[in-house]
C-alpha cells in the first residue's frame, strides 16, 4: 500500500477532476487524482470498435460553451462542424415520414402554431431562471411540484405538440420520461443552454466535434499531471474532519487538506465516509438519479443518406430511435449514423436478446433512411447503464420537488470536502462545459480557503 501526502485529493479523472487538478497545480498546490477506471475521461470515451473510431460518450461542442471552447483552444485541439447539408426527416404519430428544413417539425398547421407558442412561452419562462440558482425563482416550489408532462397537458390538449416539445427535454437531454421530472428541472435544463429554443435547434446544441475525439480534453489535461494521476484506484473510504481528509483507495492512501469529489452524485454511496456525511446530504443524494439512454453507432461504407439529399438529422417521439444524426468522422470516407433510444424505450429493448435489440434499432433507422440503414459494417451500442462507475446517462437530475428543496446545497462544501461535476452545474449542466466550470469553481474555492 502506497501512502502519500498532498494538499488536495481529487476523486475522479474526468473533465471536472482533471480541470480542477490543473487549476490547483497552477496555484502552487500539490494534488493526487484517484480514478476508479483503468482510463482517464469519465463519461468521455473515444474508442476504436472493429476498426471504427467512435465517441462512446460525450462529443458535442455548442457555441455558448465558452469554458469548453477555451480549454479546447488552450490544448491545441481542432474542431469541425457536424454535417447538416440537406433535408431533415420527421415521422409523425401515423408513421408517415416527411422531409423538412428548419427547426419546427412538419406537423399540421394547428399543431405547429401550438408548438411555436409553447416554445415562445418556455423561452420567456426560461429567461426568468438563473441557471446557477433555479431554486431562487419566486415560483420555484410550484414549478418543481408539477411534472413537465403535467405542465404540457395543462397548456394544450394537442398530443402531438406535447409529445414533440417533451422530446427536447425528456428524450434528448434528461433521458427520463416527462412525468418523472419537474417543470423547474426542465427550465433549468433550458436555462443552462441559454434558452429553450437552443435545445430545439439541433444546429446549435450539436454544433461541432473535436478532431480525434473529445476524450482528448481530459487525456491531455491528465498528461500534464503525470504521476499525480492514479488509475484503477477506486476510493473505498474517505475520512474527514477539521484537520483534513484521508482517502483510502485500492493500492493507495492519500492524506490531504482538502478533497474534491469529481464524480456523479449517484456514486457517492460507493464511498464510506467517516464520519458519515450530514443528514442533509444523505437525503439530497437519494433524490438524484441518472437518466438512461442507449447511444447507437452504425457505420456504413459510405454516407448513403447524402445521396438522397438528406442531412441525416431525424426526429420522432413515436420511433424507437427518437433522434439521429450524421456522425461521420472528420476525413473518413465512411458514413456514421448516431441514434438515441432513451428512458422507457431503452428499458424495453434491454429485455430483448442482443440480436433482436439490434434488429429493432436498425429497423427504426430504416424508417428514417430506407432499407440500406439495416446493413452497417460496424454496429455498437453505448450502454452507460452497465458502467460500474457511471450507472446511467447522460447525467443525474432531481425527482419531482427535489431541485427547489435541495438544489442550493448540492455543491456546497462539507468541511474539507468539495463537489465538482457536470451534474451539479448551472451553465453547461449535464455537458462537458459544465464539468469544466465546476472543476474551476471547486479549485478556486480551495485556493481561496488555503490562502485565508
UniProtKB/TrEMBL annotation:
Annotated transmembrane regions: none
Gene3D superfamilies tied to this protein: FAD/NAD(P)-binding domain (3.50.50.60)
Entry superkingdom: Bacteria
Co-factor requirement: FAD
Keywords, in A-Z order: Oxidoreductase
Short name of one Pfam family: Amino_oxidase
Residues binding FAD: 35-36, 235
Domain Amine oxidase: from-to ranges: 16-446
Oxidoreductase found in the keyword field: yes
Oxidoreductase listed as a keyword: yes
GO molecular-function terms, A-Z: oxidoreductase activity
Stored InterPro entries: Amino_oxidase, FAD/NAD-bd_sf, Flavin_amine_oxidase, Flavin_MAO
Entry binding sites for substrate: 340
Family from the record: Belongs to the flavin monoamine oxidase family.
Name of this chain's protein: FAD-dependent oxidoreductase
Organism: Microbacterium oryzae
Amino acid at each position: 500500500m502506497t501512502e502519500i501526502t498532498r494538499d488536495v485529493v481529487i476523486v475522479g479523472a474526468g473533465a471536472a477532476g482533471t480541470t480542477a487538478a490543473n487549476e490547483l497545480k497552477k496555484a502552487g498546490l500539490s494534488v493526487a487524482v484517484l480514478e476508479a477506471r483503468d482510463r482517464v475521461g469519465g463519461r468521455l470515451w473515444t474508442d476504436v470498435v472493429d476498426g471504427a473510431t467512435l465517441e462512446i460518450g460525450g462529443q458535442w461542442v455548442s457555441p455558448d460553451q465558452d469554458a469548453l471552447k477555451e480549454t479546447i483552444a488552450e490544448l491545441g485541439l481542432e474542431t469541425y462542424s457536424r454535417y447538416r447539408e440537406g433535408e431533415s426527416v420527421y415521422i409523425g404519430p401515423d408513421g408517415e415520414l416527411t422531409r423538412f428544413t428548419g427547426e419546427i417539425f412538419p406537423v399540421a398547421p394547428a399543431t405547429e402554431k401550438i408548438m411555436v407558442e409553447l416554445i415562445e412561452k418556455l423561452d420567456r419562462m426560461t429567461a426568468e431562471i438563473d441557471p446557477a440558482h433555479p431554486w431562487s425563482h419566486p415560483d420555484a416550489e410550484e414549478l418543481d411540484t408539477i411534472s413537465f408532462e403535467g405542465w404540457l397537458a395543462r397548456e394544450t390538449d394537442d398530443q402531438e405538440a406535447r409529445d414533440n416539445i417533451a422530446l427536447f427535454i425528456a428524450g434528448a437531454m434528461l433521458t427520463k420520461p416527462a412525468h418523472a421530472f419537474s417543470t423547474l428541472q426542465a427550465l433549468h435544463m433550458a436555462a443552462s443552454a441559454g434558452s429553450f429554443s437552443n435545445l430545439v435547434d439541433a444546429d446549435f446544441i450539436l454544433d461541432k466535434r473535436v478532431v480525434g475525439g473529445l476524450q482528448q480534453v481530459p487525456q491531455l489535461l491528465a498528461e500534464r499531471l503525470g504521476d499525480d494521476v492514479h488509475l484503477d484506484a477506486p476510493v473505498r473510504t474517505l475520512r474527514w474532519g477539521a484537520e483534513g481528509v484521508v482517502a483510502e483507495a485500492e493500492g493507495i492512501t492519500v492524506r490531504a487538506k482538502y478533497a474534491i469529489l469529481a464524480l456523479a452524485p449517484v456514486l457517492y454511496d460507493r464511498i464510506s465516509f467517516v464520519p458519515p456525511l450530514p443528514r442533509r446530504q444523505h437525503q439530497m443524494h437519494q433524490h438524484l438519479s441518472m437518466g438512461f439512454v442507449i447511444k447507437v453507432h452504425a457505420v456504413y461504407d459510405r454516407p448513403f443518406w447524402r445521396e438522397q439529399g438528406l442531412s441525416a438529422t431525424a426526429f420522432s417521439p413515436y420511433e424507437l430511435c427518437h433522434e439521429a444524426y450524421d456522425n461521420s468522422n472528420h476525413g473518413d470516407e465512411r458514413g456514421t449514423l448516431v441514434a438515441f433510444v432513451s428512458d422507457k424505450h431503452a428499458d424495453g429493448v434491454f429485455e430483448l436478446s442482443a440480436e433482436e435489440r439490434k434488429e429493432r434499432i436498425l429497423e427504426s433507422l430504416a424508417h428514417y433512411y430506407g432499407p440500406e440503414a439495416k446493413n452497417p459494417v460496424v454496429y455498437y451500442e453505448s450502454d452507460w447503464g452497465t458502467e460500474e462507475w457511471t450507472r446511467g446517462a447522460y447525467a443525474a437530475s432531481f425527482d419531482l420537488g427535489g431541485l427547489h428543496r435541495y438544489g442550493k446545497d448540492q455543491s456546497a462544501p462539507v468541511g474539507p470536502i468539495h463537489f465538482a461535476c457536470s451534474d451539479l452545474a448551472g451553465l453547461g449542466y449535464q455537458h462537458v462545459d459544465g464539468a469544466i466550470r465546476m472543476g474551476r469553481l471547486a479549485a478556486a474555492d480551495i485556493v481561496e480557503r488555503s490562502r485565508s
